[in-house]
Every structure is written in structure tokens, then in C-alpha cells.
Amino acid sequence: TSVHPDLHQQYVQACQSLGRPENPFIAHLLQEVDNNYKTEGTKGITLKIAGNNRLVPVQRVTDEDVEVVASVLPNAGFVTGLDLRYNVLTDAGAKHVAAFLQENSTLQYLNLMFNDIGTSGAELIAEALHRNETLRHLRMTGNKIGNKGGMFFASMLQINSTLEKLDLGDCDLGTKCLIAIATALAQNRSVKAINLNRPLLYSLEEETTAHIARALKNNSSLVELHLCKHDMKTFGVKRLCEALYENSSLRYLDLSCNNIICDGAKCLAQLLKWNKTLEILDLNANRIEDDGAIYLSEVLALYNRTLKALSVVSNNISGKGLVALSDAMKINVTLSYIYIWGNKFEAACTVSAFSRLIRSGRLAPSCTDVEPYKVDGHIHLAELSHGLKRHYYWTPSYGEEMSREANASLAIAAVSEH
Q1: Is residue 175 classed exposed, middle or buried when 0-12, 13-18 and 19+ CB atoms within 10 A define those classes?
Q2: How far is CA 415 from CA 38, 74, 166, 187, 272, in A?
Q3: What keywords sit in the KW lines (predicted)?
């Protein structure tokens, strides 16, 4: 439509007709959208009603607020994204969101992370996605939907064929639902990125990892997989590596915060010798130590030319392993992002190796998490706030958020460039 609906005016009217109080934060945002539309016009915008915006006074969005917003949005076809993270939505709010998803035909991005939605809210949203054919990116992170809530998403993945990114990190998923999701992923052809971080697993047998590995053998659409805090050990890493010899689509593998030691790093190094698709490997907060770092650096120096980013933050690596990685970077020019903070920098050789990489221009300051500085003629390394998950929980309130350096792609919506 050429005539732009006045969102703020409609919001005020909807509040009156539903007998709900106005939320000043929502009113302020809708006014801004109206003003921007008048000056710039718009194709697709994301309404950022996030409860963690530090630049304006925020009144957190409640279930009643969502009811009003959901009644206004059908008239605003140019709204393609809705960001409701860090609010106080419960299952009652999820009901309004689900009803909206069933009828809406323009929303592509929905962020509900860190609200209070539980199992029944998850059921409503998952069932709405049985019929919805426009939503491409859904973040449920941090809502305690539990094993049962996760099961509803698993069955949704067997039916829905448009969702591309699904974030179920920190949702208290259990063993059964992880296995069900893995089974669905073996058949699903549309999901490109999935986050299954921090499930609640009570078994040490790593059967969930084995099921996920089996799914990877058959899946040719998944590009990004997050398995942080899965209590993964060498056995699980071996299963994943075996599967990835046969998989040629996965580009981003997140194995951070597991129990991976140098044997696991050795399996990954063997895989990188042959694998030609993996571009980002996150091993942050494991214990690969010097031996693991040396296995990886040998393969990166001699064989692999596809890996672009490697995080070995907090892996108990000392001078020997870190220098080996910096030597590999001198030979391998494809590897452009490396994150090493939280290891042992006592050795002068480590500090000088990385400051040489940065000074020579081989390693861009924005592509690593350390920065050399000098005190009394000695060089030390300071930490920078860069990393693979830099924009996972938040995005800047102003300025550019699409920088390649913050390449936690689940957080940065590539669905519609906001």
C-alpha cells in the first residue's frame, strides 16, 4: 500500500478499545518508526522492542502489551522483524504471538529470547509454525520450555519447510527432545542454523551427540551448529568427526564449554586435513592444552585452506602451543580470525609472536581478542572484547552491527538486513 498506516495512532486506539494502558516505550518506538517512514520510506524494518535497551527508558513489555501490538501489526506489512528479547512475556503472551504468527504473512524474524515462556507457550508457538510459511528466524533462547516444549519444536521441524534459523539455547532441553530434534534434522531440508546449547543431560554416555552426528551424515542443508555445554568428551567428538567426513554443508561448528582434551583436538585436526567446508571452529573453554594446539596448527600450516576462524580461548595452552598457532598463521593466509585470550601468556615468545602478526598486518586488530602494549620496554598483551559470540546476547543500540568480525551469525539476522 502506498498510504502508510500511522502505527502510533493505531496503537493508541487499540489500547483504548482493548482497555489496556499504553506502554510509553512502545509508543515512543512506534512514533520513531512513523517519523522514519515519512522521511525515508521503508521496505522491511525490524521493530526493536527489546527490554535491554540502555539508551532509552524501558518499560518491559508484558503479555497485555503484546496483545495490543499483535492487533496493530497486521496493518503494517513493512514490519518484517520483531525483537522482544529481555521482556516479561509468559505463556499468555505466547498465545497472542502464536495467533499473530498463524495469520501473519510478512514477519520473517522473531526474537523472544530471555522471556518467561514455558512449555505451553512453546507448544502454541511451535504449532503456529505448522502453518506459517514466512518466518525464517526464531530465537527462543533462555525461555525454560523444558524437554516437553522442545518436543513440540521437534515435531514442528518435521512439518515446517521455511524456518532457516532456530535458536533453542539455554531452554532446558532434555535427552529425549535432543534425540527427537536430531531425528527431525536428518529429514529437514530448510534449517540452516540451529542452536542447542546447554541442555540438561543426566547421562554420561553422550548418546545425544551420537544422534546429532547421525543426523549430520544425512543432512545437507545445515550450515551452522551450536553444541555448547553438552559435556562432550573424546567419544562424542569422534562421532561428530566421523559424520563430518561425509557432510559437505556445515561451515560453523561451535563446541565451546565442553570437556574436549588433546585427543579430541587430534580428531578435529585429522578431520580438517580432509574437510573442505568448515570455516569457523569454536573450541572456547575446553582443555586442548599445548598438544591439542600443536595438532591443529600442524594441519592448518600444511593441509587445510578453508578454516577462516578459530577460537581456543581458555584452553590451558602455554607458550609452545600458542607459538605453533602463530607460526601456522604465517604460512596459512586463509585463517584470518584467531581468539586466544585466557591461555598462558607468561612466555615472552608468545607475546612477541602475536604482536609481530598484528604489527606486520597479517592479523587485523579487529580479528583477534588481544592487543599488544608496552610498559617499561616490555611488550604485554591486553584483552579486546572481540569474539565469535560478540553479538549473541546483544546488538549495539546505534552504529553498525553487521561487521564480519562479530560473526556469531545466529545473533546477526542475515534473514533481512535490518
Answers
A1: middle
A2: 25, 20, 12, 22, 29
A3: Repeat
Strands 337-339 and 309-311: parallel
Task: Give domain limits for the chain.
Answer: 1-82
Q: Is 137 helix (H, G, I), strand (E, B) or coil?
A: strand
Alpha-carbon distance 137 to 415, whole Å?
7
Question: CA of 83: how far to CAs of 92, 127, 418, in Å?
Answer: 18, 20, 11
The CA distance from 87 to 114, in Å, is 7
Report d(CA 142, CA 51) in Å as an integer.
14
List the grid coordinates of 366. 579487529
DSSP 202: -
pLDDT, tens only, 192-248: 999 999 999 988 889 999 999 999 999 999 999 999 999 999 999 999 999 999 999
How close are the terminal C-alpha atoms of the chain, in Å? 20
pLDDT of the residue at 398: 64
Q: Give the burial class of 56: count Cβ atoms within 10 A of its Cβ; 0-12 exposed, 13-18 middle, 19 or more buried.
A: exposed
How many other C-beta atoms are found inside a 10 Å radius of the C-beta of residue 375? 7
Q: Phi first, then psi: give them for residue 249, nearest 5 degrees.
A: -115, -25
Please tell me what DSSP assigns to residue 327: H
DSSP helix/strand/coil, 39: helix
- CA 299 – CA 77 distance, rounded (Å): 50
The strand pair at 378-383 and 370-375 is best described as antiparallel
Q: What's the CA gap between 224 and 191, in Å, rounded?
A: 9
Taking CA atoms, 136 is separated from 80, 184, 191, 389, in Å, by 10, 17, 9, 21
| Cα separation, 135 vs 140, whole angstroms | 13
Question: 0.85 cut: is pTM over it?
Answer: yes
C-alpha separations of 39 from 35, 73, 186 in Å? 7, 21, 47
CA distance 275 to 281: 12
